[in-house]
Amino acid sequence: MAYLDAYLDPALDIPKGETPKKITVQEVKRLNHLLAVATAAQKIQRRLGADASDEEIARDKVQSRRIAHVARQCIAAWDDVPKKRLEKCESEAAQIVWANWAAEHQTRLLNRMRYIATWQYKYSTEELWAKSAVVRLNNELSWIDYALRD
Fold first, then answer.
1. What are the structural domain ranges in the chain?
2. pTM for the whole thing?
3. 3-state DSSP of the chain
């Protein structure tokens, strides 16, 4: 349990009905949405606006492609739920700024790691599954950081 201790937050309120399957479904749903946004962002011509340089537009396309790749890899790591068709996310994709999104996403992933570790501590005997889930989220965090490198 030492690995999960780093993420443990005993003050965190966790519902008793949480299960590995529910957590997995939530994470795959989140990742499918990310994949849809990143894929849509790749397809929008001059998404950054008319005043963006060619280099900025090229970098944005590369970052969108990398984020989509990370989402696909992460879905495969979690996946024991059926694959879904990509949802329509053009308006969100048109507005996303990957650097700003990454900071918010990092916070969300760290919160999910705390949530899963605390859930395991309070209610579950699924220590191995919880460790694997936290490792998957930690990997996603690292891969996103690498994908957005300049």
1. 18-147
2. 0.90
3. CHHHHCCCCCCCCCCCCCCHHHHHHHHHHHHHHHHHHHHHHHHCCCCCCCCCCHHHHHHHHHHHHHHHHHHHHHHHHHCCCCCCCCCCCHHHHHHCCHHHHHHHHHHHHHHHHHHHHHHHHHHCCCHHHHHHHHHHHHHHHHHHHHHCCC
